[in-house]
Amino acid sequence: MTILDKIIAFKKKEIAKIKAEIPVKKLVESPNFGRTVFSLKKSLLEVGSTGIIAEYKRQSPSKGIINDKATIAEVTNGYLDANVAAQSILTDTSFFGGTMADLMEARVINQQKPILRKDFIVDGFQIVEAKAIGADVILLIASCLTATELKNYGNLATDLGLEVLYEVHTQEDLDKINDLDNKIIGINNRNLKTFEVDLDHSIKLSSQIPDTCLKVSESGISDPKIITGLKEFGFQGFLIGENFMKTENPGEACQEFISQIR
Ligand SMILES: O=C(O)c1ccccc1NCC(=O)[C@H](O)[C@H](O)COP(=O)(O)O
């Protein structure tokens, strides 16, 4: 059993418990249901967009503790000052040390850029929850879901006015996504089963993605030169966590990184 299998099994149990305690009706009453959603697509396509989706990540299964000091407020303000295209917040507690409260706090501060709820979605309830806590985008990891789940959860998110970042690592993952056209596709350079990171992975798989898609490269990015290379292969979004979060001041690190993108 891989860590990913363990995470998914744990998530399913966790969500079943939460669903038994919190009615969907309660989530729908959240003021965030009435707010205007910020579009990731629009932000990535904007003229002059940095394309950086900067992540708040305290810890991870592959690296352990990355940063347990930098606060949500400091990092959110720092990322916004750096002119990121979007923010990503891990809301999983058991494996990444994140919380839904983290995202809610970031939402209060961030009233200008999209926020991705970074979690392992295994149930439609979490998509309604994402809207309730103020997210604009959800992540659907193709290797963790069936083709039917990907379709149904994608439709549910769209119905709620949320966007979806579909994450793939293999051709098999891509084949599971119904009608790729116009979707936001994230290629994870990290193999979530082995944690191996290959920065060429995005480029290798990119030719399989239609031009109508918005391509995002995820994980292991630590050098602005990598962004230049990825842009040549049509990538417009770059999800970066550890490289910023491992520093004392993630916002400043992000600003420095962005200033070096050519
Ligand atoms: O980061 C991990 O160890 C990990 C393990 C298992 C499942 C997912 C994992 N990471 C999620 C991510 O995709 C990254 O947080 C994100 O792409 C940013 O990556 P990085 O810049 O390498 O922090």
TrEMBL record:
Residues 4-256 form the Indole-3-glycerol phosphate synthase domain. PANTHER family: INDOLE-3-GLYCEROL-PHOSPHATE SYNTHASE, TRYPTOPHAN BIOSYNTHESIS PROTEIN. NCBIfam families: PRK00278.2-4. It catalyses: 1-(2-carboxyphenylamino)-1-deoxy-D-ribulose 5-phosphate + H(+) = (1S,2R)-1-C-(indol-3-yl)glycerol 3-phosphate + CO2 + H2O. It comes from Polaribacter marinaquae. Its EC number is 4.1.1.48. Pathway: Amino-acid biosynthesis; L-tryptophan biosynthesis; L-tryptophan from chorismate: step 4/5. InterPro entries: Aldolase_TIM, Indole-3-glycerol_P_synth, Indole-3-glycerol_P_synth_dom, RibuloseP-bd_barrel. This is indole-3-glycerol-phosphate synthase. Keywords: Amino-acid biosynthesis, Aromatic amino acid biosynthesis, Decarboxylase, Lyase, Tryptophan biosynthesis. Gene3D superfamilies: Aldolase class I. The keyword Endoplasmic reticulum does not apply.
